[in-house]
Amino acid sequence: QVQVVQSGGGLVQAGGSLRLSCVASGSISSGNTMTWYRQAPGKQREMVATHASGGRTNYADSVKGRFTISRDNAKRTSYLQMNSLKPEDTAVYYCKTTFFAVGGWKDYWGQGTQVTVSS
Protein backbone atom coordinates (compact mmCIF):
# COMPACT_ATOMS: atom_id res chain seq x y z
CA GLN A 1 0.00 0.00 0.00
CA VAL A 2 1.37 3.39 -1.02
CA GLN A 3 0.37 6.60 0.68
CA VAL A 4 1.26 10.13 -0.27
CA VAL A 5 0.67 12.77 2.39
CA GLN A 6 1.07 16.46 1.80
CA SER A 7 1.63 19.29 4.25
CA GLY A 8 2.20 23.00 4.07
CA GLY A 9 0.23 25.55 2.16
CA GLY A 10 -2.05 28.24 3.49
CA LEU A 11 -2.61 31.94 3.00
CA VAL A 12 0.19 34.33 2.14
CA GLN A 13 0.48 37.84 0.75
CA ALA A 14 1.83 38.45 -2.71
CA GLY A 15 5.60 38.38 -2.70
CA GLY A 16 5.70 35.94 0.18
CA SER A 17 6.93 32.37 0.38
CA LEU A 18 5.55 28.97 1.26
CA ARG A 19 6.97 25.47 1.31
CA LEU A 20 4.99 22.37 0.53
CA SER A 21 6.05 18.90 1.58
CA CYS A 22 5.03 15.50 0.31
CA VAL A 23 5.91 12.24 2.03
CA ALA A 24 5.47 8.93 0.26
CA SER A 25 5.30 5.71 2.24
CA GLY A 26 4.85 2.05 1.41
CA SER A 27 6.25 -0.10 -1.39
CA ILE A 28 7.79 2.58 -3.56
CA SER A 29 10.56 2.09 -6.04
CA SER A 30 13.68 4.13 -5.40
CA GLY A 31 13.54 5.11 -9.05
CA ASN A 32 10.46 7.26 -8.62
CA THR A 33 9.64 10.66 -10.04
CA MET A 34 8.00 13.27 -7.86
CA THR A 35 5.78 15.83 -9.55
CA TRP A 36 3.83 18.78 -8.25
CA TYR A 37 0.65 19.90 -9.97
CA ARG A 38 -1.86 22.62 -9.26
CA GLN A 39 -5.44 23.29 -10.14
CA ALA A 40 -7.05 26.68 -9.90
CA PRO A 41 -10.84 27.09 -9.82
CA GLY A 42 -12.31 26.59 -13.26
CA LYS A 43 -9.00 25.56 -14.76
CA GLN A 44 -7.36 22.31 -15.71
CA ARG A 45 -4.74 20.73 -13.53
CA GLU A 46 -1.27 21.75 -14.67
CA MET A 47 2.21 20.48 -13.98
CA VAL A 48 4.25 22.83 -11.82
CA ALA A 49 7.54 21.00 -11.28
CA THR A 50 8.93 17.52 -11.57
CA HIS A 51 11.99 15.85 -10.10
CA ALA A 52 13.27 12.55 -11.39
CA SER A 53 15.15 10.13 -9.16
CA GLY A 54 18.33 10.83 -11.10
CA GLY A 55 18.11 14.50 -10.21
CA ARG A 56 16.73 16.05 -13.37
CA THR A 57 14.15 18.76 -12.73
CA ASN A 58 11.66 20.53 -14.94
CA TYR A 59 9.43 23.52 -14.28
CA ALA A 60 6.44 25.18 -15.82
CA ASP A 61 7.42 28.45 -17.45
CA SER A 62 5.11 30.33 -15.10
CA VAL A 63 7.11 29.33 -12.02
CA LYS A 64 10.67 29.21 -13.31
CA GLY A 65 13.00 31.24 -11.14
CA ARG A 66 10.45 31.40 -8.31
CA PHE A 67 9.75 27.79 -7.35
CA THR A 68 12.27 25.11 -6.47
CA ILE A 69 11.58 21.41 -6.25
CA SER A 70 13.85 19.24 -4.15
CA ARG A 71 13.79 15.82 -2.56
CA ASP A 72 15.19 13.89 0.34
CA ASN A 73 15.31 10.28 -0.81
CA ALA A 74 16.13 8.96 2.64
CA LYS A 75 12.95 10.54 3.96
CA ARG A 76 10.99 9.81 0.77
CA THR A 77 10.00 13.44 0.80
CA SER A 78 9.58 16.01 -1.93
CA TYR A 79 9.57 19.73 -1.25
CA LEU A 80 8.24 22.61 -3.29
CA GLN A 81 9.70 25.93 -2.18
CA MET A 82 7.59 28.74 -3.56
CA ASN A 83 9.01 32.27 -3.47
CA SER A 84 7.77 35.57 -4.87
CA LEU A 85 4.25 34.24 -4.86
CA LYS A 86 1.64 35.89 -7.04
CA PRO A 87 -2.16 35.88 -6.78
CA GLU A 88 -2.24 33.73 -9.92
CA ASP A 89 -0.40 31.01 -8.00
CA THR A 90 -3.57 30.48 -5.96
CA ALA A 91 -4.66 26.89 -6.46
CA VAL A 92 -4.91 23.49 -4.87
CA TYR A 93 -1.50 21.87 -5.13
CA TYR A 94 -1.08 18.14 -5.56
CA CYS A 95 1.93 15.90 -5.26
CA LYS A 96 2.30 12.73 -7.29
CA THR A 97 4.83 9.94 -7.18
CA THR A 98 5.37 7.82 -10.27
CA PHE A 99 7.36 4.63 -10.59
CA PHE A 100 7.49 1.39 -12.53
CA ALA A 101 6.32 -1.72 -10.73
CA VAL A 102 4.90 -5.12 -11.51
CA GLY A 103 1.98 -4.45 -13.79
CA GLY A 104 3.33 -1.23 -15.24
CA TRP A 105 3.68 2.42 -14.31
CA LYS A 106 2.04 3.48 -11.07
CA ASP A 107 0.82 6.92 -10.03
CA TYR A 108 -0.06 7.82 -6.47
CA TRP A 109 -1.48 11.22 -5.54
CA GLY A 110 -1.46 13.26 -2.41
CA GLN A 111 -4.64 14.69 -0.96
CA GLY A 112 -4.03 18.23 -2.18
CA THR A 113 -3.34 21.38 -0.23
CA GLN A 114 -4.72 24.87 -0.73
CA VAL A 115 -2.40 27.75 -1.47
CA THR A 116 -3.99 31.20 -1.47
CA VAL A 117 -2.02 34.30 -2.40
CA SER A 118 -3.66 37.61 -1.60
CA SER A 119 -2.88 40.77 -3.50
- Outline, from the CA principal axes? elongated
Q: What is the N-to-C order of secondary-structure elements (H for helix, E for strand)?
A: EEEEEEEEEEE
Task: Estimate the helix proportion, in percent.
Answer: under 10%
Distance between the first and last residues' Cα: 41 Å
Q: How many helices in DSSP terms?
A: 0
Gyration radius over CA: 14 Å
Q: What about the largest sheet?
A: 7 strands, mixed
Mean pLDDT value: 95
Q: Decide which structural class fits the backbone.
A: mainly beta
Number of strands: 11
In terms of per-residue confidence, which ranges show pLDDT below 50 for 5 or more consecutive residues? none
Strand content: over 45%
Summarize the structure.
0% of the residues lie in helices and 57% in strands.
List the helices and strands and how they pair.
Elements: E1 3-7, E2 10-13, E3 18-25, E4 33-39, E5 46-51, E6 57-59, E7 67-72, E8 77-82, E9 91-101, E10 104-109, E11 113-118
Parallel strand pairs: 2-11
Antiparallel strand pairs: 1-3, 3-8, 4-5, 4-9, 5-6, 7-8, 9-10, 9-11
